[in-house]
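Worked example 2:
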Amino acid sequence: MSTVATSSGLSSFFSGKPLRFIAASILLVNGLFPAIWILFTSLKTEAELTVKPITWFPHTPTLANYMQAFSDQPLHLFLFNSFMVALLSTALTILISVLAAYALARLNLKYRALILSLIIAVSTFPLVTLLVPLFEIMRALNLLNSWTALILPYTVLSLPVCTLMLVSFFESIPRDLENAAMIDGCTRIGALFKVVVPLCAPGVFTAGILAFVNAWDEFLLALSFNSNPALRTLPVGIQLYQGEFAFPWPVISAALVVGIVPVAILIVIFQERVVSGLTAGGLKG
């Protein structure tokens, strides 16, 4: 009896609320703790940061690190470059992925399964293996030291995930809605953007957020393809705060917080659409 009770208790634990609560707590701590620690560090002085034992909360919070972050480096320029590159690459990604996903979902393609398999395979390539070929392509096209040198690769890197996500959404939309729109005079492209895309808005927003965040955070290509100081993006610019023998962690943390804020605001504004898009995509996929 005791063995049965123990096994039933374990099964109820692993399938019930306690385990879900523990898993959610681990994810919450793992996601929030680094961001909170960076925020606290950005509010500390250099002296307080090196004191022992470590102080978790800043005793004398200061905003001097934020002012120094903007004065030591052109942080506003880094933010502008990152925003424009991420915005333009996201727009291009959404446009191409919508057309590609619609073709895969609606057209009777002969090698549809093979195309989907290739898309999945391409999405698994490590970025470092693509660095040299992409660099050679950009150099041959004379695109180095320009926004285009980043926008095009970021678009290509985000396309597989965004396309696969949108295929499942488009497949859930009844064809009768498009047929009715085309009977009323719409072309197929018109029916796509006037009927299908609005109905799949959560999926489109989710794909857009993923593409934007990927472009905003990318470091390796931005460092390799742009040597022009006026075109540096935020991840590349933040590394300039450290010196040869000095690491001003409070100032670096302040710059990181400034870089996190735009993405956080974006997530908060579109939170409901992103959550519904991920949930619906998971159920349909």
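The longest helix spans residues 75-106. Residues 281-285 have pLDDT under 50 and may be disordered.
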